[in-house]
Amino acid sequence: MGCSSTEPPTPADTDGSAPASSQTPAPWPPPEADRSEQENEKFSARQLQTVEKDLPDLARSMGAKTIYTLREETCQLTAGPLQRPRLTRIKGIVEVDVRDEEVARKVGASVRTQAERQGWITRPEEDWGSGAGPAFYQGYHPDLELTLTLTYRDDGERPRTILHATGQCLEMPKGHLMTVSRLDRRAIVHADGDGVDTHQVPDAQQGPVPLPESTQTPAPTGPEGVTAEEPHDPDAPTPSPTSTKGFLDDAVRRP
User: SS3 helix, strand, coil % of the chain, rounded to 5?
Assistant: First the structure.
């Protein structure tokens, strides 16, 4: 049980790994299976584990050196503290500054190559559309109900590309504890519903956190013309991306 995510914006309603003429269009985002709240809790953990494993090298393919967001977040910000963890989704965000739209398109091509190498299915380009900005890549993991969307934004001062890895909102059982990856720049401290920093993940580093070692040789790289934020401590060690030890076992109550 759950509800559909509305972020990042995706105006098209269909999706597929081949042109519509050769394959029946699939729903976008991937449809949610019928699960109990307890099953959703385990499914959400699998989603976060997958995004933790894939996002660092996707970030590298953009030319990024750190991850902005990688956590479970509430889908009902206006609800009371005890209700916010009852409806959550997985969210990962990476962004880099780019020289111009041409570079942004090259970032999109690089992300596409990396995502397909990792097993993500690319959505037909004619369905990518635009929301807050033009989309230069969209992909999905139908079995895990996850989507990837790379958008380009230019406010006249800071052209940039932003990658969202997103799950749909899932209903969780009473007493559910939301989780956060130590690769999230704010894993070291979390704000409660009133904006007060009260929750801390043990052994988390001061963010932005350096990326773990790549799972590939050679490691993916981004195109020229990208400017990436530097980690707070570039020499700080990070856990292996192939193990959830140190990530998912640090469940943090974030009302």
Answer: 20, 25, 55
Cα–Cα distance between 108 and 106 in angstroms, integer? Answer: 5
Closest listed residue to residue 222, CA positions, set 70, 83, 107: 107
Residues 6+ apart with CB under 8 A from 158: 97
Enter the tokens of residue 217: 């040789």
Structure tokens at 184: 């999230």
Digit-coded pLDDT (tens) for 192-219 = 444 444 456 666 777 898 998 898 999 9
For the entire predicted model, the pTM comes to 0.82
The Cβ-side half-sphere exposure at 192, using a 13 Å CA radius, reads 10
Pair 136, 149: CB distance under 8 Å: no
- DSSP, res 212: P
